[in-house]
């Protein structure tokens, strides 16, 4: 199976080519995951979701230091590994501290960062050139996906948010956020397509959104998030990162990526498992701390990928 995927990916020569075969694999994986959601109870879904996120989900952000080093070497920078590592660790701990001191602010920033990051990954290969309009589209589309997830699981989402920030927010916020981000996404997609700055198939994009809606409505909050986060975001991101580091996709490059990611991946997984163990008897609290920790390691990753995409656009 892996060899087949590798052959498909190696046919792709540049970032402006769509990924029809990869899309097909992801869609099949999505419907298989959706079938699992139908036959298993929420408890089993949560276990599968944790496994999904702790494996490919965390892995896709575990090689940031090597990505930074690669980018710096291309610019002939003199920054060394220790200095980069120090900045990165301080950023992660700073994010954890913000969640502890000002959880409401940290939660908003997490949604904004994640929204931009999801939208960037989805559209970067279809963007002809970077601009303010494309940045707005990235942010609006990714936020739309998050609000689609939140609105489809509004009660569960509301309980988790209450656990994090210690007060409830109206469920109507999810609907308003979904409506506003959806309108902005549609408007800027149309503008960029008309200006030939974005190459997309509108029917396919609407089909994808339909898939997300069905998944989020059918699966639990955590399983729905895991399906999107891993299949639709992490796997395409892994491809981009491996190609950036090694220039090709094969068993050797994938193995090398995993080996260099291992230290950070093990630390992240150990931290998350420790939190899950502490709050194993309280689902809402365990999910709240899980997403908070995930947010803390997401912030620097978003900035790293943004920096890499800017460098590639300049080259």
From TrEMBL:
Query: How does the record classify its membrane topology?
Result: Multi-pass membrane protein
- Quick check: keyword RNA-binding in the entry? no
Q: What would you give as a GO molecular function for this chain, any one?
A: iron ion binding
Give a single Pfam family match. Answer: BCD
What does the record give as the reaction this protein catalyses?
Answer: all-trans-beta-carotene + O2 = 2 all-trans-retinal
Name the residues that span the membrane.
Answer: 21-40, 46-63, 84-116, 136-152, 173-194, 206-232, 253-280, 286-305
Q: Where in the cell is it found?
A: Cell membrane
Q: Which keywords belong to this entry?
A: Cell membrane, Dioxygenase, Iron, Membrane, Metal-binding, Monooxygenase, Oxidoreductase, Transmembrane, Transmembrane helix
InterPro entries, per the entry: Blh_diox (IPR022270)
**Entry EC no(s):** 1.13.11.63
- Which cofactors is this protein said to need? Fe(2+)
User: Which coarse location class applies to the principal site listed for this UniProt protein?
Assistant: membrane
One GO term of the cellular component aspect?
Answer: plasma membrane
Biological process (GO) annotations held by this record are: carotene catabolic process
The residue stretches assigned to a coiled coil in this entry are: none
Q: What class of enzyme is it?
A: oxidoreductase
> What role does this protein play?
Catalyzes the cleavage of beta-carotene at its central double bond (15,15') to yield two molecules of all-trans-retinal.
Q: Can you tell me which family this protein belongs to?
A: Belongs to the Brp/Blh beta-carotene diooxygenase family.
Record-given protein name: Probable beta-carotene 15,15'-dioxygenase
